[in-house]
Each structure stands twice: as structure tokens, then as C-alpha cells.
Amino acid sequence: MSESVLRQRRPTVAILATGGTIAGEALVAAQTIGYTAGVIGVDRLLSAVPELDSVAAIRAEQVASIDSKDLDNALWIALTHRVNILLAQDDIDGLVIMHGTDTLEETAYWLHLTVSSEKPVVLTAAMRPFTALSADGALNLFNAVTLAAYPDAAARGVLVAFANRIHGARDITKVSTYAIDAFASPESGVLGWVHDKRVEFQRRVTRTHTIKSVFRLNVINTQNLLPVVQIVVSHAGVEGIIVDALVNAGTHGIVVAGTGNGSIHATLQKALVHARTQSVSVVRSSRVGSGHVMHNAAAPDDILGLVSAGTLNPYKARILLMLSLAHGWSEPIVLQSLFDRY
Ligand code: ASP
């Protein structure tokens, strides 16, 4: 850590606990798969990591106790509001969110687009429950707090501290169902590392986020209703019936997890072209898990009125499309410029 980024006073880090495996409990310590996520309260989780005291003063809150597979819009909206309120306080230097691994990448990108502060926001999680042998949550939490308290972690958008690596919210994705090192940032690589109270960054985040983002929650009504955006997958033998059903149900947007470079089965493409005639926005992404979906390459986007997702995976493309539609931006050319920028 260089002198220029050392603080003069002890930092304060807010922690928001939402549940997940990091708060999971099993009957016996040898159980690492059969357990209940999101049951242990934040006070007990923190008392297992007294070393946090050597890094920052902590202010913790329990905002939810869920398995993140069950996450919904209401919790995303509540999280953004709470993060914005806490980070507006002068005496809070950074913030950590304890989350489940299943949808961590989605929440990270949601916050990346909707938080209005440059202070560090760091998500962390665990692959093994709190009660397990070799549970990974305590060290991940310690590293997340270290990162949130590190002044040079500011203005890099939302970060994830996991298994000693620092990932950017836009890049990270879960790549293993069981491994302790369950996340990767395909194509772009990690932003840096956090080890033993030391933080090292290797690159900056170039896409627009947080305070420069145009996406703000004041466009969302009090019922937490966001435009309905669903994901469909292109595969051998796929039929158009799913798309037709979504259109009939009044869906506002569809993200296609295409094959390869976002290519779409001819049958599915026919249904999607029909969806466009019903004013449904359609974004082309890829089911491959890494790489880039090139505009006007595997499909004539401009002719069909489609938008290409670039390096955003289908789940993150859904978030960007949902927020764009919530702001009233549905023209393909406008959507494409947003997908090229965020
Ligand atoms: N199902 C859990 C969750 O996402 C998995 C985990 O946290 O690792 O909440």
C-alpha cells in the first residue's frame, strides 16, 4: 500500500448482510453441500472474525436473510436505496454486502449501474456454509472489508472480493457449482488481488458506472415494478412457442442467450422478429460464457431491430435492458448505444 493512499484515521465500513451460503448452517461440520443458506445472523458472522477490528470500525445491518437464488427486484431496489443513504454519510468510508454466490454477479451489476457514490462497494460470499470444515466465508469477509477500507478502491465501480481476487461487477460470473474458487472474469481478467491486508490493482474499469451512470431509481414506481424482461435460450430443436407465450403475456423485453457469437436458431429468430412487430425489445447475447457478441455479425441486427450485448452475459444484459426500458429508452439505436457504453 503506498503512502499516498493511507488514511489519517481508522476507516469505518458498513456491512449489509443479505443471507447466502456465507450465512448458511448445516447439522454437522462435514456437510458442505446439504445446508440451509441465509440463516445465521450478521452479529454471529462478525463475531467469528474478530480480526476485522484491526482493519476498520464496522457498522452492520441485516437487510435480508435469503438464499440468493430467490432474489427479486424489491431487494435490489432496497439495497440501492440503503447503499446510497449509507455512503452519503461522511463518516462511512466504504461498504460491504454479504450475498449468496448464485446471483451475486447480477446484484453486483445492478448496483454498479444504480449506486450514486464513488466510495468502495464490495460484494462477497462463500461457497461453504459458516458451519463447514474449511469454511471460506470468514476470510472472504475479511478481504472484502480490507478492500472497502482501501481508499484507492474508490471510483472503480462495484467490486467483488472472492478467493483473494478482486473482480469488476461487469466482468464477474460464477463458473463452478462447487469449487471454492467459483468465480472468474472471462475475457477481461481480474481487477486485482487482496491478500493479508494488502490490496493490489492491475487495471482500471473503463465502462460507465455509479456516479456517471444515467440509471436512477426515481423512475421506478412505489410497487417496485420494473419492465418485464425474460431470457430465452437458443439450442438445437428450439421452438418459437416460448417467445410467442412471452409476447402474449405482455413481456416488454427479451434477452436471447444465443449459440456461439449470439447466433439464433432460424425458428426462434422468426418468433423474435414477430416479437419486434409487437414492440418487444430484443437483445442478442451468448450462452457460451465468454467472448463478445458482435453487432451485425451473427444476425443482421440493424435490419431486424435487434441489439447486441457485447461482453455482457444474458443475466446482466437483462438488467441493463430492464433499467433502460424503465427510463423509456426502447429504440434499438438508443439501446445499442447504452449497451456499447455500459
Ligand atoms: N444458494 C446459495 C445462495 O446463492 C449459494 C451460495 O451462496 O453459495 O444464496
Automatic annotation (TrEMBL):
Keywords: Hydrolase. Residues 229-330 form the Asparaginase/glutaminase C-terminal domain. It is an enzyme of class 3 (hydrolase). The active site is at T21, T101. One of its GO terms (biological process) is asparagine metabolic process. Pfam families: Asparaginase, Asparaginase_C. Belongs to the asparaginase 1 family. This is Probable L-asparaginase periplasmic. The gene is ansB.
